[in-house]
């Protein structure tokens, strides 16, 4: 699984393309300029100390060194710019794939994944790839290119120093991998903890009203605080290993440079090496290990990226929702739905429906009722095409639903869940979610038909009032009626309702039912309900056994 994740991550380097190549190329050019700079500096100091040259003589060399410093700085800056541009493209591509996959999978197949997990994966998970593509990959290439280039200059001058550098260099990646394996195990556990924390925190935010109602806010804050402290301690344990790794790499590099310095010092003492050559080697020795040490620093970015990639791959391997391959230009004035011995069983083995048959006329209210767990919501999912029947047939105007294009069919339907989602936007924009092209007058008429117009006009800014997060400023009944207004403004032939009056007082339920019955005068309305008060007013009632 780990190797597959690494290959999957590396495959996105193609998306970075030219930008990643430019970043690596410019970094290598900066490394070559460093070698030239070291050579000029060593020669200049040698000329001043041992050949007695004055400032005028060595001034061209000093200007050249200054120019090389600025050139290297410019190259490194441009290199970092292109690496940032490369990782931006990669993150855009990965996020696009994740969101497209979620859309193809559908809400039913994602039901066992928490919202906090998905949000964490799409936000923090993708962001954790930043260090891999902008740091680790370019540094890996530089660690392969720059040390051999430095050895190519050192070996002709002093093969002993070159041999020491070549022998000690593999020790740095060796310790990096050994210590990094421990950090990788801790990082996997860390990812699981942050997923749990995200899930818990999101649930707490979404349930703030309920927590406040039952005076349980302080208790929940204590629980979230404990989980946060646990996450903090685990983060410190990961950092402890990371610091240990950095210490080990710095120690190995320092010892290796010291060995080279001692050898060069003795060879200068014995007259086997001139000062200029020895000083050149001593300048380059720390730079020889620098790409390897930097790679060790970015190795932890690789660990985090691989952990995130493994979770992304799990999401990407979920089977896509089966979609009907029909035409995308459907247009129905009326819709009659029929179930003919339809059966559906969830993957967990739980039966959703078994040999279920019913018919909903093109106009009028059809109620599906029965005990919980009998498949009422499953029937709505089947009508929406979110799942496909294992047996039996669903027809729309005597045409098999499986022969209708899924996206086109959804345009013919409106769906009102038990708890509709409202955006932190104006009331007008929230109603327009049903029809983005609706005029202000059409929105107002829809609100009036949903028995909500007077309450909207009483708001501080009327239809321009900005709602709180998920409509927290509205009551439960107002939320449901606002969602009904979306159905009115959508003006589609089929409306599906999942217990719209659940948990509401009698007055709110009555207003909703009046709006539903008005909807049913010109459209097919299928409503799941446990409320027996609405059943006598329905055109058809189907009790699920």
Question: In terms of per-residue confidence, which ranges show pLDDT below 50 for 5 or more consecutive residues?
Answer: none
End-to-end gap: 45 Å
User: Which architecture name of the largest domain does CATH use?
Assistant: Up-down Bundle
Q: Return the CATH class of the largest domain.
A: Mainly Alpha
Number of domains: 2
Helix content: 55-70%
Structural class: alpha/beta
Order of strands across the main sheet: 6-7-8-3-9
**Radius of gyration, whole Å:** 34 Å
Mean of residue pLDDT values: 81
Instruction: Report the CATH superfamily of the largest domain.
Output: ABC transporter type 1, transmembrane domain
Work out the helix count: 17
List keywords for this structure.
4-stranded antiparallel sheet, alpha/beta, 5-stranded parallel sheet, ABC transporter transmembrane region fold, 17 helices, Rossmann fold, 9 strands, 545 residues
Characterize the structure shown:
There is one protein chain. With 545 residues, the chain is of the alpha/beta class. It has 2 domains: 2-316, ABC transporter type 1, transmembrane domain (ABC transporter transmembrane region fold), CATH 1.20.1560; 337-544, Rossmann fold (3-Layer(aba) Sandwich). 65% of the residues lie in helices and 10% in strands. It has helices spanning 2-11, 13-50, 55-109, 115-127, 130-154, 159-168, 171-206, 208-213, 217-269, 275-316, 376-384, 406-410, 427-431, 440-449, 453-457, 476-490, 506-520; strands spanning 337-345, 351-360, 364-370, 391-396, 399-400, 413-416, 494-498, 524-528, 540-544. The strands form 2 sheets. Strands 6-7-8-3-9 form a 5-stranded parallel beta sheet, with helices on both faces. Helix 6 runs antiparallel to helix 9 (217-269) and helix 7 (171-206) runs parallel beside helix 10 (275-316). It is elongated, with a radius of gyration of 34 Å.
């Amino acid at each position: 699984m780990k190797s597959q994740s690494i290959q999957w991550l590396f495959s996105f380097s193609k998306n970075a393309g030219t930008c990643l190549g430019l970043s690596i190329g410019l970094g290598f050019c900066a490394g070559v300029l460093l070698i030239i700079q070291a050579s000029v500096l060593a020669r200049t100091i040698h000329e001043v100390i041992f050949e007695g040259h004055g400032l005028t003589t060595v001034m061209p060399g000093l200007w050249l060194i200054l120019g090389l410093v600025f050139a290297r700085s410019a190259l490194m800056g441009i290199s970092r710019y292109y690496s940032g541009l490369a990782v931006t493209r990669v993150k855009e591509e990965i996020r696009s794939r994740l969101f497209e996959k979620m859309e193809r999978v559908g809400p039913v197949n994602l039901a066992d994944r928490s919202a906090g997990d998905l949000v964490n994966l799409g936000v923090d998970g993708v962001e954790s790839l930043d260090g891999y593509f902008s740091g680790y990959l370019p540094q890996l290439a530089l660690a392969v290119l720059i040390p051999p280039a430095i050895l190519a200059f050192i070996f002709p001058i002093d093969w002993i120093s070159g041999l020491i550098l070549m022998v000690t260099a593999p020790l740095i990646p060796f310790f990096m991998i050994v210590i990094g394996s421990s950090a990788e195990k801790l990082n996997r556990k860390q990812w699981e903890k942050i997923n749990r924390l995200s899930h818990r925190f999101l649930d707490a935010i979404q349930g703030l009203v309920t927590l406040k109602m039952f005076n349980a806010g302080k208790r929940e804050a204590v629980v979230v605080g404990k989980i946060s402290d646990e996450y903090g301690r685990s983060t410190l344990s990961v950092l402890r290993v990371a610091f240990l790794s950095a210490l080990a790499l710095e120690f190995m590099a320092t010892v290796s440079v010291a060995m080279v310095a001692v050898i060069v010092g003795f060879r200068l003492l014995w007259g086997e090496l001139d000062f200029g050559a020895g000083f050149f080697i001593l300048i380059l020795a720390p730079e020889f290990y620098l790409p390897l040490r930097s790679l060790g620093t970015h190795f932890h970015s690789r660990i985090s990226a691989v952990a995130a990639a493994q979770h992304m791959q799990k999401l990407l391997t979920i089977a896509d929702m089966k979609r009907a391959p029909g035409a995308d230009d459907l247009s129905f004035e009326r819709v009659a739905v029929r179930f003919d011995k339809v059966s559906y069983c969830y993957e967990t083995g739980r039966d959703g429906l078994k040999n279920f048959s019913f018919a909903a006329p093109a106009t009028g209210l059809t109620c599906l009722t029965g005990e919980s767990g009998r498949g009422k919501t499953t029937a709505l999912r089947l009508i929406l095409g979110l799942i496909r029947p294992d047996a039996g047939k669903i027809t729309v105007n005597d045409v098999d639903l499986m022969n209708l294009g899924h996206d086109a069919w959804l345009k013919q339907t409106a769906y009102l869940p038990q708890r509709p989602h409202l955006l932190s936007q104006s009331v007008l924009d929230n109603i327009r979610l049903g029809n983005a092209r609706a005029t202000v007058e059409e929105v107002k008429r829809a609100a009036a038909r949903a028995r909500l117009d007077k309450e909207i006009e009483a708001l501080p800014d009327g239809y321009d009032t900005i709602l709180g997060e998920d409509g927290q400023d509205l009551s439960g009944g107002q939320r449901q009626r606002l969602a009904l207004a979306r159905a009115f403004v959508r003006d589609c032939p089929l409306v599906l309702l999942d217990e719209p009056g659940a948990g509401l007082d009698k007055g709110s339920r009555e207003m909703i039912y009046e709006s539903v019955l008005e909807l049913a005068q010109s459209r097919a309305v299928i409503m799941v309900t446990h409320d027996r008060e609405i059943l006598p007013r329905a055109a058809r009632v189907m009790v699920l056994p």
